[in-house]
């Protein structure tokens, strides 16, 4: 499927040209939350392997349980041997048996994509509860199937670009969480340190604070990576409006986990194309003034 709804032909041709430079395939779905304008390219309703983007519904369900008094952000969560997993993050290098406040576990899960912290969070809130959250949010293509382990060939989790945008919209519009807990979710997501797709090609002068606190453009996102898979989904808040965007990809022939792996060179151009379409003209007018 290749949609032009809310995107002109020039943008579609640009996105098609990016696809032609990529050994895998990608889909992007984005919505301007003020105008309701939608950009859709590729199979935006098909489930893709999420990789670590699945940590967003885990985060939201954990915060929902804290809001409802099932758990609390100050509650100590203990690292058990059964939580151990390699990959991204820092807790794998620490000693089993330590305890961290639940807020810190969730923060590590998102900002450094800590896999072990993710398993601690899933054990605490339960997979069934995470998937019930997805159903409550109307995410028909989304399912978190298991805790993180690399000895299984089965997908860790599935979702579609459209589902991820719907989840981001729900966080932004505070329909799943109260204003207080929605703000906590966005604060954690804004501090993500793997800014290699959505943020990489955006105008640096808008992302750098340059004395502005906060910066003029703020990205609240979560990325994910597996061999041949690179995804990123987030909210981009600008002076000219906020939009939600999800880019999902698969099948890249570049197996490297490197800042310049193929997807992390090609896909930032998709993010920049969406940015330019939604807000580029307004930014250009301001720059020229």
TrEMBL record:
SUPFAM superfamilies linked: beta-lactamase/transpeptidase-like
GO molecular function: beta-lactamase activity
UniProt signal peptide: none
Keyword Hydrolase: yes
Domain Beta-lactamase class A catalytic: 28-248
Entry keywords, A to Z: Hydrolase
GO BP, sorted A to Z: beta-lactam antibiotic catabolic process; response to antibiotic
Classification via PANTHER family: BETA-LACTAMASE, SLR0121 PROTEIN
Protein name: Serine hydrolase
Originating species: Sulfobacillus harzensis
